[in-house]
Write a structure and sequence with these properties.
Rossmann fold, Hect, E3 ligase catalytic domain fold, 4 domains, seven-stranded mixed β-sheet
Length: about 500
């Protein structure tokens, strides 16, 4: 802070000139809007020199900041200097440069009054030391706030109209596209990465695992060069960034406005079937609070037990005494929220219920009909996996065809560097296609047989004994969709995957 002319001299009025511009456009110019506002302020202060007015050398500029709030560094510095007694008068080009909010302006004027600081607008002649000046100021500020609200409404209407026409409204470019002439144009290299991210997520069913795999491959966020030549992006991928990719409808060739989807002008790079599979997994993981089982209190059936009477989940909980857990149970959410008298099931002890479920799994090998259902489920899973592998192979093959067209163009123009680059990119894609074809062959060769299911059930107990609590819970979740408890009838029903497979038995813990 320059200390020139800041100490109070009798008859001297120290004037601080505040300037503001809402956008950053044009600020790079040698003489910009902030300079023009300050020049007008300095000329006005000079015209009042006979009254003892002197312009403080310090600049209070806010370039690229809205007047709708007070989160502005220049304004904060000005208020701090006023509070320190270094300013007698604040000069602005127009009232709305200081604030466009009537409430914020009232707060600022309260400080001015308390510190006996006057306020002057160069283009709107008034002084707040007079009552008429105050009235004029409030009228002008009301119109400034009204203008800001009208601009906001028009901007929202413009965004909505642009979305309905399928146009890209602007903002940061997204991975997979370049912005050319205000439109999204597919970046073939990045589009391949986006398709691979979807494929990896469908395979791993985990955003974290997808991010880790992408980092191993050296992939980064979208990078681009701004108008001023500054390079932005190109950072290591993060879980939130990958999640935004997996949920961004732009990759379907659509644009979104609130809850509505519109066909976009740009080309989609993700097929609807691939998108739907990823969305289904994301939704399931959202219901389950992620793929990892957080189970610190040994609730093997956590997230699986439901009250059949209320059609509500039953949460795993426990009681404690002297800091030690004494009793575990599953309680109906409806009973907990509305009162235990509202639910006939209320709660069920955890250990007898969990023991019953595990014992029923041990006995499954003797149920030939259920073994048949399990076989069909395993084969359906194989068919689904095969379809996913074939889709991924088709995507990679399309990528090779795009590269082949690039290779032909590079050959026609004798671009040796481009030919070498295309060959370098084609090699790993070809290797991935060969790996997928090997997986397809293994899937066809290793289709599950009934004798393998029988053997698996025979080995259930030795396997169960070796698993940790977390692994046991994951195993149960992979086999069972829900454990329905009917407290009125005293029955427990296991709902397996697929949903058509049900095994009902009475449980009397």
């Amino acid at each position: 802070m320059n200390g020139a002319a800041t100490s109070k001299t009798p008859g001297l009025i120290r004037c601080a000139i505040y300037t503001r511009k809402s956008s950053e456009e044009g600020l790079e110019q040698e003489f910009n809007s902030l300079d023009a506002q300050r020049e007008s302020g300095e000329l006005y202060v000079s015209s009042q020199r006979s009254e003892g007015w002197v312009c403080l050398p310090d600049r209070y500029d806010d370039g690229g900041y809205t007047g709708g709030n007070m989160e502005r560094p220049g304004l904060k510095q000005l208020m701090a200097d006023i509070d320190a007694g270094k300013v007698d008068c604040v000069v602005v080009y127009k009232v709305d440069r200081l604030s466009r909010s009537l409430l914020d302006f009232a707060r600022i004027m309260e400080v001015f009054d308390r510190k006996k600081v006057s306020f002057v607008s160069v283009t709107q002649q008034f002084n707040t030391t007079h009552s008429m000046g105050r009235l004029t100021l409030n009228i002008l500020l009301s119109f400034a706030q009204f203008e800001r609200e009208i601009i906001s409404e028009r901007t929202r209407d413009k965004i909505a109209a642009t979305r309905r026409k399928g146009k890209w409204f602007g903002g940061k470019p997204i991975l997979g596209y370049d912005v050319v002439g205000g439109k999204l144009i597919v970046n073939r290299d990045e589009a391949f990465r986006v398709r691979e991210l979807f494929a990896i997520y469908i395979e791993t069913r985990s955003v974290r695992a997808t991010t880790e795999e992408a980092l191993k491959r050296g992939w980064t966020t979208k990078s681009w060069t701004q108008k001023d030549g500054t390079k932005v992006g190109g950072l290591p991928l993060t879980n939130p960034y990958v999640h935004r990719i997996l949920t961004n409808v732009s990759y379907l060739g659509k644009v979104q406005h609130h809850d509505q989807l519109f066909e976009g002008e740009h080309e989609g790079i993700i097929e609807p079937t691939l998108w739907k599979r990823a969305a289904t997994i994301l939704e399931a993981n959202g219901r389950d609070k992620g793929s990892d089982v957080r189970n610190t209190h040994h609730g093997l059936l956590k997230g699986l037990v439901r009250c059949r009477n209320c059609d509500k989940p039953m949460s795993h909980t426990f009681t404690t005494k002297a800091g030690k857990r004494t009793y575990r149970y599953y309680a109906c959410h409806a009973a907990q929220s509305r009162g235990y008298h509202t639910c006939p099931s209320k709660s069920i002890p955890a250990e007898p219920l969990e023991s019953f479920v595990v014992e029923r799994l041990r006995a499954l090998g003797r149920d030939r009909e259920l073994v048949g259902v399990i076989l069909e489920r395993a084969r359906a899973h194989t068919r689904e996996l095969t379809a996913q592998l074939e889709d991924r192979r088709a995507t990679l093959q399309r990528e090779l065809r795009w590269l082949a067209s690039d290779e032909r163009r590079a050959g026609a123009s004798s671009d040796a560097d481009r030919l070498a680059e295309v060959a370098e990119r084609s090699r790993p894609i070809g290797e991935q296609i060969r790996e997928i074809e090997e997986e397809l062959a293994d899937a066809a060769k290793n289709e599950l047989r009934r004798d393998q299911v029988d053997a698996a059930f025979a080995e259930f107990q030795p396997l169960w004994d070796q698993l940790s609590t977390r692994e046991r819970a994951e195993l149960l979740r992979s086999l069972i969709k829900a454990v329905e408890y009917d407290g009125k009838a005293g029955e427990v029903t296991l709902v397996f995957h697929p949903e058509s497979s049900r095994l009902a038995a009475e449980c009397k813990p």
